[in-house]
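Problem: given the chain below (151 residues), write out its structure.
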Amino acid sequence: MAFKWLTRLIPEASEPGKGSSDLSRAIAVLMLEVAQSDFEETEEETSTLLAGLIEHVGESEQRPQDLLAAARSDKAKSAGLYEFTRLACTEMSMAERCILVEQLWRIAYADGVIDKYEEAAIRKVSELLYVPHSDFIKAKLTAAGAANNTP
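Solution.
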């Protein structure tokens, strides 16, 4: 095969069923970006992040924790968010991306304080996901309402 060298350079292309795993990791990295953007990842943010991962991947408690560990590694190795948002744009519908932005806001509201760095991180991710500003604001208001209604 003339292009055998290409499959060695890009091993993911030759592995079937890896796409959904990559998307789950990308979502976890984006969530982690918001949780760590204010330089302090609180327990509330981490638990909200894990709940969001369960909502997105729909699996047991153990799997999201493994996904979070992998996301920490991916984020540490990455130079930016583009590779993760690009994958999300190609694999997710606009409605799913809007739900993701709402989840990012929920993570930011989890500790009761919206830091300017958290808002900037969500805005950056939202723009890279091509989420319209009106949906960005709707997601923020929905998450704020949910945060105010929790005891």
